[in-house]
Input
Amino acid sequence: MTKGQRIRKARESENMTQTELANRLKISKQTLYKYENDIITNIPSNIIEQIAEITDCTPAYIMGWEDITYTFRDPSSETKRLLAYMEKMRLLSSEAREIIFDQVDYQLHKEGKDEG
Output
């Protein structure tokens, strides 16, 4: 996952629009768009730190130095539940996980939220 994809994922996890995050960062929406789409990859460290603070993750996650899905400092109960299920999924066979992944993809498609 690229730095831009991680920024987008962190922003979306907070249900923020590009405009909202850009305003909080005091940058243009176009600049944020370029960060998220890896058009600009040399993002100033202070911006990385601000994004992490605003989206409640770590700069290491944004930079791709942490090899975990998402690092929350103070996760909500829903996030804790999701993380607990992720841990449980690690115990399943690869075939069982594939069935679950397919179901998630199906549901996202059904709700019009798929990325493909």
In short: The mean pLDDT is 87.
